[in-house]
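Pipeline run #58 for the internal structure catalog. This entry was flagged by the ingest filter as a single-chain record with no existing model, so it goes straight to prediction. Upstream metadata was stripped on purpose; only the residue string is passed forward. Reviewer on rotation: M.T. Logging verbosity set to normal.
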Amino acid sequence: MNNRVKISANLVFLIAIFFSVTSSLEAATSFFYVDPDWTGSQTGAPETPWTSLSSGPWSTINSALASGPVTVYFSARNAGSDTSETSGAALNLDRTNTSNNVLTLDGMSKYNTNDGSPAWAAYSGTSRFKITTHYPCSSNNYSSQVVRNYVTVRGFKFEETLGGQVAYLSYLSNVIFEFNDLTHIGSPDNGPGVVLVGNHIIFRNNVVHHVQGEGVYVGGWYEEGTTRSGTVYGDDLLIENNTVYDVGFNSGEADGIDVKDGWTNLIIRGNIVYQSALSRGRCAIIVESAAVIERNLVYNYGTGIALDTYYNTTVGRNGTVIRNNILVDLGGHSDDLDGAIALAGAHALSYRFTNTKIYNNTIWKNVDAGIFIRDFDGPGIADNVTIRNNIIDNTGNLPIKSAASGKIVLHTNNLYRRTSGGTLVQDGASSYSSTDLAAYEASAMSTDPKFTTTSTPYVGANFKLQATSLCISAGTTITTFSDDFAGIIRSIPWTSGAFQSSGAALQPPTGLRVLP
């Protein structure tokens, strides 16, 4: 047998194995269906779907999970029109099977084309299975504390009708919550939009809006105390690519994303958080645990990003990184923390944030300070702070304000510009203006950064730099990350601010001649 024949035979063999394995995996998955418009017998099969997930269907689902993964399709749209299918039955995550087989609850990918004789088709439109009721989505384990593990909730619209959470998700493990729309309707008087508690959680690509309290609320110890000293509350949480807007609309606390104490491995990335009215929002992103906070767009809030220390904890306040964020049109809220980026002082030194890195952020039009290291929350002032490659422009108060000297251990390649001129940096008892800024930071600038536009509506691309900006190639290379706000790999030399720029366009060479 020649080599070509051998290769062909091997390829055929590998392809056969691939299709065999794929078929086995597909065969191992159990599929069930839900359509509240169906009036016939209910088994969860495509031709006899359930109308909701009550105790009987959950018994079937948990039994099937013992053998393999399970996917439950909820009809995304009505059979007769491309409008969201609606239900008044809450989605309670009553999984009790403890295997690692994944349960997927899908409200966006399929729909029933015929209410009288069910037939299911793939769907890629904008309609979603919509649940309107009190606590429309819940882990249903507040009292039992049964862990809901290996669940994906995808593509629903959830509407809370009374006071309560739109999605109450507690005691979770290995859970993905994605592509959902969550809101309060009517006049609710209690509750954040989403409550998250557990480990190994991904909350991504959701829209949270018009809820009474915080948009996304992540619980913590609320006081470490002696019995929990050094104990982690939750681990491995990714909050990514969500849009959170107009929360706190009924006099509730209007933080966009609020993470309490005791968390580790926390990432808050790529979210858009804003208010239509500046007077409503306190903090867009506020955390009491160390995190990587990157590539977020925040506007029309009091404070953009806050590291808070209200609760005492010795876990998870070392090594926060705040990078590649765009924070614009901030300040003026009566209860904000007085900075586009604010680091609160803790009640004691052992509870403070330390080794915080603030890199390549773009801050524009902030009523208060650009970056504020506070002391009046307590004596534990954040220390070992690094500030590099930031653009802090058009602030009403100081671009940099530190309550004590020596807390900022490294600061280079930043742009500081204030609306009224005057003092730009206050570092403890020392202050600097544009005339002596070089004495504070030799690589600093105080000039117009030349954004593409600062007009509304605000989008990230507005704050790219024009080709004549002095911030282009004015940054220093940071070795711990390599991308910019858009996720594009930065080229050397780095540009200050959230967007990398390659600088002036390359010009064609001149003076060339052809040699014989």
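catalog note: The longest strand covers residues 167-178.
catalog note: Helices lie at 3-28, 55-65, 437-440.
status: ready for reviewer M.T.
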